[in-house]
């Protein structure tokens, strides 16, 4: 009986080896879930992308096949537009966020809300540098400018100004406007009191 199992196993291994030897091996991308993922819960998110066709000034942008964007500042007023919203922003989506890698702190990050004009902007907290290949999340609560500028309708867009100097490289992915986490809501309540 054992010899039959050994023969079956040997046949299976040899068949698999010979059947697979003519196929090309491919890399399968790794999929990671956002830390805020909860099974069964639908979380509204507005996915954003840089506009690679227009609105760039003092910055170059390269898009990788994995959905990462590399920004290199080339002058003293680097800025770019995000693509326009394709539908109205869900009311609860008020946190502008992205994951990033950055070799040097970025100060003077400013978001302009369309229609672009003086006074229709919000200055965000600094974007802190990362170490090595570490990814950090940048978040900015834009609830107040959304309300003040009545922003978030289909066709609206954001211009993002990223610092005031040339030679900065920022790698960005997972750019979105999302709803607040429970921790962010608790922090707001704590600051009210």
Broad shape: globular
Largest sheet: 6 strands, antiparallel
Mean pLDDT: 85
Oligomer: single chain
Please state the CA-atom Rg, rounded to the nearest Å. 23 Å
3D structure, described in words:
The strands form 2 sheets. Strands 1, 2, 3, 5, 8 and 10 form a 6-stranded antiparallel β-sheet that branches. A 4-stranded antiparallel β-sheet has the order 4-9-6-7. A hairpin with a 7-residue loop joins strand 6 (109-113) and strand 7 (121-123). With 193 residues, the protein is an alpha+beta fold. It is 19% helix and 29% strand. The protein starts with a helix and ends with a helix. The chain has helices at residues 2-20, 143-149, 182-192, and strands at residues 45-47, 59-63, 69-73, 79-81, 93-102, 109-113, 121-123, 136-141, 158-162, 169-179. It contains 3 helices and 10 strands. The longest helix is centred in the first third of the chain and has 19 residues, at 2-20.
């Amino acid at each position: 009986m054992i010899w039959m199992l050994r023969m079956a196993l040997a046949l299976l291994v040899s068949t698999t080896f010979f059947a697979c030897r003519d196929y090309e091996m491919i890399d399968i991308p790794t999929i990671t879930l956002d830390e805020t993922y909860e099974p069964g819960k639908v979380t509204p998110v507005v996915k954003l992308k840089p506009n690679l066709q227009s609105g760039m000034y003092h910055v170059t942008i390269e898009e990788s096949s994995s959905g990462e964007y590399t920004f290199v500042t080339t002058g003293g007023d680097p800025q770019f537009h995000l693509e326009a919203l394709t539908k109205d922003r869900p009311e609860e989506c008020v946190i502008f966020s992205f994951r990033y890698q950055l070799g040097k702190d970025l100060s003077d990050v400013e978001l302009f809300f369309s229609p672009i004009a003086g006074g229709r902007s919000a200055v965000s907290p600094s974007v802190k540098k990362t170490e090595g290949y570490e990814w950090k999340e940048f978040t900015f609560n834009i609830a107040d400018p959304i309300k003040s500028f009545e922003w978030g309708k289909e066709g609206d867009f954001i211009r993002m100004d990223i610092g005031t100097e040339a030679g900065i490289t920022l790698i960005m992915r997972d750019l979105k406007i999302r709803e607040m986490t429970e921790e962010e809501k608790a922090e707001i309540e704590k600051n009210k009191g």
